[in-house]
Amino acid sequence: MVERVNSMAASSERKGSASNGYVMLVLMLALLLVPALVYIALGEGEPTLIAAIAGVVVILFILTGFFMIQPNQAVVLTLFGEYRGTVRKDGLHWVWPWFGKEKVSVRAHNIHSERVKINDLRGNPIEIACNVVWRVADTAQAVFDVDDYKEFTNIQIEAGLRTVGSRHPYDDMSDDDETTLRGSGDVVNRELIVELNERLQVAGITVDEAGLTHLAYAPEIAGAMLRRQQADAVISARRKVVIGAVGMVEDALQKLSHDGIVELDEERRAAMVSNLLVVLCGDREAQPVVNTGTLYQ
């Protein structure tokens, strides 16, 4: 687990307040009629000019307060540097022009990390990469608690991938139920999700999915590790063949003795065991040899 010391107070998202933008749009259109009404009532002159200038100023003032929110989008509102809430409702909205407005996408983002070279638990250099699906859960933390939440996310994904990758060996040919990067994909993916969520919590980011997309030995040891894997596989297969052959020989001797087919002394039993093991464990098909004499001739 990652230990962190965080001395600053974490921001927390809260609902912001904004006026209905469509109502303000109707009001703005209505103001366009004011200069025309003044002109009709008073004709050309200074009052008409003043009304026209005032109407333009008011319309420009209203225009600067509009903002549009698309689905799965949010706007963080600030007033002279103070956080005043987040608006998530899609549609046309309006706030006073002196409010700061910063749009934040709360849609799911997909990142495919670069291949990074790390050392696994046994010290073997490997190449690893992952795919991560993340989204902004707390807009206040994403905007105010980190400098650039997208860059922060990219860096933490690589750091989390290095941490999880170094916890386990690449592969293990033994019979132990050891977690490996190659053979325990579900376990490693869950660990990666937990690790990334812990790292990105400070930025208000939630990781929904994460999984390894590339896993291989580094080029400088790939050939040696391939031969090692092949040797381990041969040894493991041989071990199973020998264990099975010994069981079959034991069953054969017990069957012969139980049914009274033939009586074997220790020397003949040893010879039969040797012959059966050669037949069962050999790589090539056994060639029978007919012996017309006895074991002692």
How would you summarize the topology of this molecule?
Blueprint: E1 19-20, H1 21-31, H2 33-42, H3 46-63, E2 66-69, E3 73-79, E4 82-87, E5 91-94, E6 99-105, E7 109-112, E8 116-119, E9 125-136, H4 139-144, H5 149-165, H6 185-200, E10 205-217, H7 219-259, H8 266-281
Antiparallel strand pairs: 1-5, 2-5, 3-4, 3-6, 7-9, 8-9, 9-10
Helix pairs in contact: 1-3, 2-3, 5-6, 7-8
Subcellular location: Membrane
Protein name: Membrane protein
Membrane topology: Single-pass membrane protein
Note down, in words, how this protein is organized.
By secondary structure, the chain is of the alpha+beta class. The chain folds into three domains: 19-103, no CATH class; 109-217, 2-Layer Sandwich (Tetrahydropterin Synthase, Chain A); 222-281. Helix content is 45%, strand content 21%. It is built from eight helices and ten strands. It has helices at 21-31, 33-42, 46-63, 139-144, 149-165, 185-200, 219-259, 266-281, and strands at 19-20, 66-69, 73-79, 82-87, 91-94, 99-105, 109-112, 116-119, 125-136, 205-217. β8 (116-119) and β9 form a beta hairpin. The chain is rod-shaped and about 135 Å long. The mean pLDDT is 81. It is found in: Membrane. Residues 64-229 form the Band domain. The chain crosses the membrane at residues 21-42, 48-69.
